[in-house]
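Hi F.,

I've been meaning to write this up properly since the lab meeting, where we talked about keeping a consistent format for the predictions we share between groups. The idea is simple: the sequence comes first, exactly as it goes in, then the structure tokens exactly as they come out, then a line or two of notes. No screenshots and no reformatting. I'm using this chain as the first example so we have something concrete to point to.
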Amino acid sequence: MSVRLTILGSGTSHGIPMIACTCEVCASTDPRDHRTRTSAVFSYDGHNLLVDTAPELRLQCLACDVRRVDALFYTHAHADHIVGLDDVRIFNQMQGGPLNVYANESTLKRLQAMFRYAFVDEPDYPSAKPQLRPVLLDGPIELFSRAIVPIPYLHGPTEVLGLRVGGAAYCPDCNHIPESSLELLKDLDVLVLDALRRRPHPTHFNLEQAVVMARRIGARRTYFTHIAHELGHAATNAELPDGMELAYDGLVCETD
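Output, unedited:
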């Protein structure tokens, strides 16, 4: 009954390397410093739950050998987390029908406004398109015989949902986790948590804040994601506490 969490993308909204940037990290030859935009997959009992659809979703699925998606979960509706949505149409074809999309109310509204064609039945639509069913998520649900626990928190003024499946939790894009949500993050094997850069940021944990929060949550292993080009993979890992490190594209975390 293990749960596998695969990090498809670990980068900030610009991606790494950034366009026109020649800094040390953007010019790095370490493949772990090449970061596509943030997304992930929870895999269990033969099912895949895709979390967000980054702009590079097609390339991410090819790189990580994602061959099926059974449902989608969205953390929030910022562009770097949603604009790859059209690429899920291949999974509609493979699964032979529509896919459920789980998100909070504001995220569903934005998705349906930006990608209306994917949520409506239009038999005369002149091309292949995604087929999606919106499902409002306002508390834990059971999905494919497993408890799915949304983790509400804030990303600046934006209400975001992280996600816990079994002993693994995925919490990108955050700078405040309320006490009620910390209760939902107890006794984790794996935590994936936002850590943008060293300098403070108004809507993300910086590295120092993320380490403090990770210690408070107390997962057995913590990986930091949504990483900007200020944090080189090897150099940053060398200074992090035991049990904490930067995530990277293609990282696979196994938990019982």
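Notes:
The mean pLDDT is 97.
The domain at 3-246 is CATH 3.60.15.10 (Metallo-beta-lactamase; Chain A).

If this format works for you, I'll send the rest the same way.

G.
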